[in-house]
Structures are given as C-alpha cells and as structure tokens.
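Justification of resources, computational component.

The compute hours requested in this renewal are based largely on the per-chain cost of generating structure records like the one below. Each record pairs the submitted sequence with a full structure-token output. That output is archived, and it is also reused by downstream analysis tasks.
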Amino acid sequence: MEHENTNWGQSVTGVVIRDGKVLLARHTYGAGKGLLIVPGGYVEHGETPQDAVKREFMEETGVVVEPKEILAIRFSSRDWYIAFAAEYVSGEAHSDGDENSEVVWMDVNEAMEREDVPDLTKKLVACALAGKPGLEPITFSGRSGPIENSLYGVK
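The structure output for this chain reads:
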C-alpha cells in the first residue's frame, strides 16, 4: 500500500461501467473504511495519471482498464484528484486482500441507493451515466511531433 515513490499530492480514480454495472471495491482503511468506492489511488513520481489509473485497477481489482475522458477534477491548495471514465478491457474482478476486502460489479441503480456507497462515488457514477462528453484527450503538435494524452478539453 505505501511506496517510497508515491506522490501524495496527486491521486486518480476511474469509473468503469459494464453491462449496467459499476466496478466498486470495499475499502479497508482510512475515511473510506467499510465503504464501496470506485478504485483508485496515488500517482507515483514519473507516472502519468492515465498510467496510475491502469496500475491501481490492476493492483486493487485484477481488472485491466483503459482511461478515457476526464469526468471530474477535485483540487485544493494541497492536492488534486482526477476521475476518468474508464473502459473495461479484461480480467476477473477480485479483492487485493489489502486495500479492499471485496470487489464487486454492482448494478448502477443499486449503487446509487446504497448507504455504504459514499456521495463522492455516487456523484462520479452519475457523471459517467450523464451521457455528456467529459474532457477528452486532444493530440497536439509540439516541436518534436504529436503529443498525446497530456491535453484534455471539450471537442
């Protein structure tokens, strides 16, 4: 769970919805202890937010995902948190036995009603379900050629 390379000021999450179900993990520590939340975590130094989402999902759930548009950003004077819509690629969901005690695919309507799903997770799921495009990756040209996955905006 703790890494020397962790950038404690940068964190990410992803909302993965597949066949009307959202992937949630029951957290085992901190303010989220006992709650079903969208998986995520801190970015490591030298890692992009997109790579952090992929790593966190693999480590915590065994599921391979591909981050897509940005659904939401939370920031303060100390840190920031980016929430991506993420696409399921492969893998069988399971608990990591450390940061979470269970990982489930839950019907999105049930997730929105449950008391053990916190408001932040519900808001992020609602953003993913809204059907409106989020901030999407925009490739632009720099002096050395095309630059991908560093600029996000409304297309």
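The radius of gyration is 15 Å. The CA atoms of residues 49 and 119 lie 23 Å apart.
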